[in-house]
Amino acid sequence: MELLSWLGSQLPSFWNSFTTLSLSFAVFILLFDHMKRRKRWNNYPPGPVSFPFVGNLLQVNFQCPRLALTEVSLSEKFGKIISLQIGWKNVVLLNGLEAVKEALVQRSEDFADRPPFSLFDHMGYRKNCEGIMMARYGHGWKELRRFTLSTLRNFGLGKKSLDQRVTEEAGCLCSAFSSKYGHPFNPRFLINSAVGNVMCSLTFGNRFEYNDEKFQRMLHLIEEAFNIGAGIMSQVAHKNLIVSKTESSWLPGFDILREIVKEHKETRDPGFTRDFIDAFLEEIEKAKMDPESTFSEDNLIFTVFDMFGAATETTTVTLCWALLYMLRYPDVQSKVHEEIDKVIGRDRSPDIEDQVNLPYTNAVIYETQRYCDVVFAGVPRTTYRDTEVQGFFIPKVHPDADC
């Protein structure tokens, strides 16, 4: 009883100490949050009020991020250039043709850099080994981009030889569509396979059957990885929240690409370059003694991954929108069909040279590209230097090793 009485007498004192400690801790946390978020610049874009720790995350619709990021009420209240805070990260959203054109065309170098992503670190990305899409702006990125464009042109990009491959693949796609006659089906699977095969012909030197298990697994995993990368958590997750950093084989899609690269290494003829992978392997041989080179086997995997992800997703979505519009506007579909029959007929396949004689069809294609919703937002960018857009100041982002 005496012990209980003593404990009872100590309880108010303990409770007061606990309350004081809790309040002190809360004040410390709020001050820390304020210090992290307090910096503001003159003429910085306006935006909604942010909350401690989470910033404007509570205002993001995770089910449909596009609606949250381009919400009409935000544009009406703050204009086409809006500032947000995602956690402790300052983010500026550009909406409208004028703002985007000024930033990405007139001031392209100012906005050429990429922010660090903990998710990509987790996948094995590191200095001079970041692929093209998410690489930091600098010599390595320029070197790899120049090589990639030059090599793809050598293998037909922008030339008639590629047009022939596209025409052949379009024939395979039409045959696949015809096999579904009388039965409902989702065209995305077949379209994605056809677009992926065009990239395969440039990158691997061959195409796959649409039902090839390895081919479909690779396309699915690449699409899945890009969806994860586009998610909001990939931009706000702190690297310490990721349990462990692994090699790039963490993503199964990379394993498939590694198998293909391994096959190329085993069958490669130094005197004959078959495709993009062979050309990249040649550059790896040349750069063996340069530790700062961007040409490595890991970076080959990341670069091919970027090429597939960027090309297949955007082209597939655009073609799906085109089919949807043809169904929605049958009168337009009839006019396109009539023009194609008149100019090309039904005895041969279309050719790139027919384009100049198909003004209505071209107009429909361009209008589809203008109107369709390919991606809800562009790939995130980081300012390379202090700059401004539409009169608003956008500061240079200094890389933070702890972000």
From TrEMBL:
Cofactor(s) required, per the database record: heme
GO MF, one example: iron ion binding
UniProt keyword Heme present: yes
Residues annotated as transmembrane: 14-32
Localization of this protein: Endoplasmic reticulum membrane; Microsome membrane
Domain of life the protein comes from: Eukaryota
Keyword NADP in annotation: no
GO cellular component terms given for this protein: endoplasmic reticulum membrane
InterPro entries: Cyt_P450, Cyt_P450_E_grp-I, Cyt_P450_E_grp-I_CYP2D-like, Cyt_P450_sf, Cytochrome_P450_fam2
Major localization listed first in the record, in broad terms: endoplasmic reticulum
Pfam families xref list: p450 (PF00067)
Record keywords: Endoplasmic reticulum, Heme, Iron, Membrane, Metal-binding, Microsome, Monooxygenase, Oxidoreductase, Transmembrane, Transmembrane helix
One Gene Ontology biological process: xenobiotic metabolic process
Membrane topology, as annotated: Peripheral membrane protein
Family affiliation: Belongs to the cytochrome P450 family.
UniProt protein name: Cytochrome P450 2D15
Natural source organism: Terrapene triunguis
